[in-house]
Amino acid sequence: MILRLAFGSLLARALTVGMTILAIALSVTLFMGVEKVRTGARASFADTISGTDLIVGARSGSVQLLLYSVFRIGNATNNVSWQSYQDIAARPEVDWIVPISLGDSHRQFRVMGTTPEFFDRYQYRGGRALDFASGHGLSDLYDAVIGADVAATLGYRVGDPIVVSHGIASFTQHEDQPFRVAGIIAKTGTPVDRTVIVGLNAIEAIHVDWQSGAMTRNTTPVEAIREMDLTPTAITAALVGTKSRLQIFGLQRWVNEYAEEPLLAVMPGVALQELWQIVGVAESALIAVSGMVVVTALLGMTAMIFASLNERRREMAIWRAMGASPVTILSMLVLEAMLMAAIGACLGIVLLYGGLALARPYIDAAFGLWLPIEPPTTQEALVLFGVVVAAAVASLLPALRAYRLSLADGMVVRI
Amino acid sequence: MLLLGESGSGKSTLLSLICGIITARSGTVAVAGHDLGPLRAGQRDRFRAEQIGVIFQQFNLLPYASVADNIALPLRFAPSRRKRAGDIPATTTTLCRDLGLPEDAPHLKAGQLSVGQQQRVAVARALIGHPPLIVADEPTSALDAATQESFLKLMFNQARQSHASVLMVSHDARLATHFDRVIDLSDIVTTQRSAA
């Protein structure tokens, strides 16, 4: 009966109570939403590359190697010679190896030279392979495969010509050797979306007439280039898969101790972890801010209960006259606060999942961030429990005041 | 019994003493043969719930609760009174009918009733479970003269059936004709002052 009367009392003050519950609900939605995005982002981030055991590049830092080879951010300090690449490829532990050559760009997007094997070996989101939205892989020397963002931003379709610029943010174009869009990769949510992929030999081909970063006078005809040996002298990095996971460490040590050239091999998972520790500071700030929003909502509720006390002194006098002790009055107010918090928190979850269901396709398309809709985890259940408990604690302040008021007033209200 | 007294004469304080909300600094307060002095606060609350039906001047009811819930409210704190009340919904219906409330009254929200009807619900609440004492603090002051008359008649009828004593305070000496005993508080206070 007490619970029913508490509900009735809340209903009777529907407007103020409703606003308070809404504030709690929105704060819980925000908090849990941030939590979802955070875990989703972390998972997406860790899912950028999978199936690759080692990334090999010129010696620098592991985060830097990861940044330029996988995220196409920044530049390599040095190249890996073709000789070294072949030495690594010849190691018995190596199951497959895919070379990557970076350095050129198309508009704001990086151009990556690689072998057709890249499309079979590059995996993301826990073993998903690249899919073609349209067209096919690299077959001709001047074929280019573009990521979903490249196609969407520049409006390219299969068959369109592409001219690659020399270097990054440069005005020199490889105009003499235009590429043709052969295929468009479906959205992955990884840096592949923002990459123009061409053959490793094509990178070599467009630089035939270039010497030390500048174009020479003579122009070799395309027909002649096609006849040339286009094996590169150096690459930027290589993705390596081993035959057995147990061999990863051995191969890594071998690469790191390679005498002919200073090289670095990193495990993508470890490097991603390191990188996330840098990026992760922002997520902590975000979660702290949304936590403060929850606290603010609960403070608002406390203020609302305080404000209601005066107009409810009459009601408390009735309870007292009927034999309720001041402790009963106190616990009724705490119960009321817990009810509001519980309803608010549940409403918050409904809002969160409703919003998630609506916004998920959009978020995936726009940010490549896949937010899974799963039943609330135990951690989230703990958050809800925490909100209700925090509400009970916060309501103790006005409840204690009500306790004192009802002791002083008794059955008579002196206002 | 009617307690007559001007405002400020200590009527409400006396009621609070009798109901065990406050304790006497000297002397003893006994209700229905029980001395309230040695009881702890919680016991006094329980005692009030079990033994005393309270009717206020006005605003007796929780406006958001149904009439039935309002009437059953004291039983929540008084287990033996609840036992005496028997089948609560049936008793509630009987009480409402006897007090001339509409048929569907128990299901209405208390706030929907007129002031006169609310006062009668308060009587039903005071009577449920047959407490030996009904304490009424100027229950008629919010009613007009004609309603006052019928309200008092109803209250006395029901109290008689329930074998309850009615202790009512008022400043209105005209009500004295309805009561077996009338005590004017000013007499007592004057007596004590002269004695001191």
Keywords summarizing the entry:
heterodimer; A: 415 residues; alpha+beta; two-stranded antiparallel sheet; 13 helices; elongated; B: 196 residues; alpha/beta; Rossmann fold; 8 helices; 7 strands; 13% strand
Describe this structure in words.
- The complex is a heterodimer of chains A (415) and B (196).
- Helices cover 53% and strands 16% of the residues of chain A.
- Chain A has helices at 2-12, 14-46, 62-69, 82-89, 118-121, 148-154, 200-206, 222-227, 248-256, 268-311, 313-321, 326-367, 378-409, and strands at residues 54-58, 80-81, 94-106, 109-114, 123-124, 128-129, 132-135, 143-146, 161-162, 179-185, 195-199, 210-211, 214-215, 234-235, 237-242, 263-266.
- In chain A, α12 packs antiparallel against α13.
- The longest helix of chain A is centred in the C-terminal third of the chain and has 44 residues, at 268-311.
- By secondary structure, chain B is α/β, with parallel strands linked by helices.
- Chain B has helices at residues 11-19, 41-51, 67-72, 79-85, 88-98, 115-127, 145-161, 185-195, and strands at 2-4, 30-31, 34-35, 52-55, 133-137, 165-170, 182-184.
- Chain B is globular and about 45 Å long.
- At the A-B interface, α1, α11 and α12 of A face α1 and α2 of B.
